[in-house]
Design goal:
This protein has about 150 residues and is α+β, with helices and mostly antiparallel strands. The protein is about 15% helix and about 40% strand. It has an eight-stranded antiparallel barrel with strand order 1-3-4-5-6-7-8-9.
C-alpha cells in the first residue's frame, strides 16, 4: 500500500510537470535548470571509493534500479523508491523537499528530512553525475558518487 501511494504521488507529480504551460511572466531557465527539470531521472549507479582508489565499488542492491528522482521548476524534488517490495533507505537517500543550485552553479543543494550538497560532475539532458557526502553518524561518513539517467 505504501509503495502504491508513493508511485501514485510520483505519477501526480509528473502530471503536474506536464500540465504546466509556460506563461509570459515565467523566468527563463538556464541550460542547467532545463537539463535538471527536463525529465524524471532513474538511478543508474551509486558507488563509494574502494580502498585502493583505482575504481569505485557499487553499493546498490537489485531493488535500487527502481529509484526515481524528479526536480521541478518550483524547486521541489522527490527521490522515490518505485520498487514493489521496498528498498533499503540507508543506501539510497530517498527524500522529498526543496532543491537549489549553489551560488557557483557547481552543486545542487537538496533540503528535505536530511540535507545534501551534490557536487556536479556532469549535468546534461541525458546524464546527471554528482558526488556527495553521506553521513548518518560521525563514524559512518562516506563520499558517494551517484549517476542518474
Amino acid at each position: 500500500m505504501k509503495n502504491k501511494n508513493l508511485i501514485l504521488s510520483l505519477g501526480i507529480f509528473c502530471v503536474v510537470f506536464a500540465a504546466c504551460d509556460k506563461t509570459p511572466d515565467m523566468p527563463q531557465l538556464t541550460q542547467q535548470e532545463k537539463a535538471l527539470t527536463g525529465h524524471i531521472w532513474k538511478l543508474q549507479s551509486l558507488t563509494v571509493p574502494k580502498s585502493d582508489a583505482s575504481t569505485d565499488s557499487s553499493i546498490t542492491k537489485s531493488c535500487s534500479d527502481s529509484a526515481l528522482i524528479a526536480f521541478n521548476m518550483s524547486h521541489l524534488f522527490q527521490f522515490a523508491d518505485a520498487s514493489k517490495g521496498g528498498c533499503d533507505t540507508s543506501i539510497v537517500p530517498y527524500d522529498k523537499g526543496n532543491w537549489a543550485f549553489s551560488a557557483g552553479k557547481d552543486s545542487v543543494l537538496l533540503t528535505g528530512k536530511r540535507s545534501f550538497v551534490w557536487k556536479i560532475i556532469t549535468l546534461n539532458d541525458t546524464l546527471f553525475k554528482a558526488t556527495f557526502r553521506d553521513s548518518i553518524s560521525p563514524e559512518k561518513n562516506s563520499v558517494k558518487t551517484i549517476t542518474l539517467k
